[in-house]
Amino acid sequence: xxxxxxxxxxxxxxxxxxxxxxxxxxxxxxxxxxxxxxxxxxxxxxxxxxxxxxxxxxxxxxxxxxxxxxxxxxxxxxxxxxxxxxxxxxxxxxxxxxxxxxxxxxxxxxxxxxxxxxxxxxxxxxxxxxxxxxxxxxxxxxxxxxxxxxxxxxxxxxxxxxxxxxxxxxxxxxxxxxxxxxxxxxxxxxxxxxxxxxxxxxxxxxxxxxxxxxxxxxxxxxxxxxxxxxxxxxxxxxxxxxxxxxxxxxxxxxxxxxxxxxxxxxxxxxxxxxxxxxxxxxxxxxxxxxxxxxxxx
Length: 297
What we know:
Layout: E1 2-7, E2 11-18, E3 24-29, H1 43-48, E4 51-56, E5 65-66, H2 77-91, E6 96-101, H3 103-114, E7 119-125, H4 140-145, H5 147-152, H6 155-163, H7 165-176, H8 184-191, H9 199-209, H10 221-229, E8 237-242, E9 264-269, H11 276-279, H12 281-296
Parallel strand pairs: 3-4, 3-6, 6-7, 7-8, 8-9
Antiparallel strand pairs: 1-2, 2-4, 2-5
């Protein structure tokens, strides 16, 4: 396995690179609370299909670090998308496909909206597009699901993120995956990524800024305006959502066809929670591999 450090305008991103050297590139973006290891069950099928995979740790996670000590620890979703596009530049990838889960899915959607000519296909897990705005329509059930968002708007939530993160995240994993017996060693391996010195700041800013509880950075205002002005995605897109997702209810990804001008598919995986790439990896690759082969052809 090749582990590479890619320097961007703000970060030193650590990325695992695997698969056939001449394979079409696929960048896989993990979510929260998770890390690059989340894709391990899917990688053999992607490599077997001929893809070259690039698996980074997102800002504030794992081995990825900010280059400057005084840089704002900004968790805006457009920042994650910009990080990925700059990483692709650093790797010399002019065209590639994306697979993203949770935060990574949001970043993949945004990147697809901002740079459609570079992205062959987008696979988004557990998140629907058009669900980033603070004034979005939301059911009472989904508001209940977002209890942890509201908690992190409080000092009490911030204290948990800073001082009891391991127990808090283990609880999140357990309630988000009700039908999956989580291997303790799997959580322990990923939980190391939460000890990144910027993890708490990025987490708190990301959840607070999306509801207007923290300031947006002027550095990302142009990107925010571009996405808001033209949210229709022209990149071929596949959405995969677990039927039993207690974080983002499947209703949050339904009825989004009007936001996609290109080929669009949505599939619900039965008896699957919020981490389909971990719990139901074979079902995910069964859908994703043919889609990516068509998109990259």
